[in-house]
Amino acid sequence: MARPPGPPGAPRCFGALSTGQLRALLQDEPRLQRAVRLSRKFQALQREREEQLAANSALARDNLALRPRLEDGKAALAIKYQELREVREACRAKLRRLEEYLEECGPQRAVGRLRAALDASEAEAEAQMQRFLAHEVPLDAFLESFCRSRARSHVSRTQLEKLQELLQKGRDPAEEPPGLSPAPGRGTASPRAL
């Protein structure tokens, strides 16, 4: 025998109802909805749903409040990227200028300029000597200018020789394969002779 149903419209457990009562309950839509609304599980789910909606609403408000900060951050980041591009281009331009300067002022250019200065001072000394021999300049003027041009020539020659010596020293280790340099105290004997 089936248990008597609880208060109308809010049975504690649908399992306690007979099949006929369940069919009658299914046919009575308002009573079924009222029973579902009054069930503890439904009420707990309803409360949980409302809490979730409130939490979502609070999160949405917080997110909307952060939006201006996000937009400001994006704008600041875009400005920083633009500054980075400008700095990168400035660095590249400076690097190109530095490479051009190094190419212009490189060791071989310096050797060429020193050779040109040496040739010019020697040509000047030779021209002064020719003018003196042709009696175009007096002895005192000739000696003064000739000494100056010979001093410039000597300085240029010394600088040229030192620079060439430094360049040669810098080149020697790179040109010699490892293991072929003569051992200390053995002179310059070839590897086969050793």
Automatic annotation (TrEMBL):
A Gene Ontology CC term for this entry?
ESCRT I complex
Instruction: Output the GO biological process annotations, alphabetical, semicolon-separated.
Output: protein targeting to membrane; protein targeting to vacuole; ubiquitin-dependent protein catabolic process via the multivesicular body sorting pathway
Q: What UniProt keywords are attached to this protein's entry? A: Endosome, Protein transport, Transport
Tagged with keyword Mitochondrion = no
List, alphabetically, the Pfam families matched. Answer: Mod_r (PF07200)
**Chain segments carrying region Disordered:** 167-194
Topological category with respect to the lipid bilayer: Peripheral membrane protein
Q: What does this protein do?
A: Component of the ESCRT-I complex, a regulator of vesicular trafficking process. Required for the sorting of endocytic ubiquitinated cargos into multivesicular bodies. May be involved in cell growth and differentiation.
What is the protein named?
VP37D protein
What species was this sequence derived from? Odontophorus gujanensis
Taxonomic classification, please?
A: Eukaryota, Metazoa, Chordata, Craniata, Vertebrata
Gene that encodes it: Vps37d
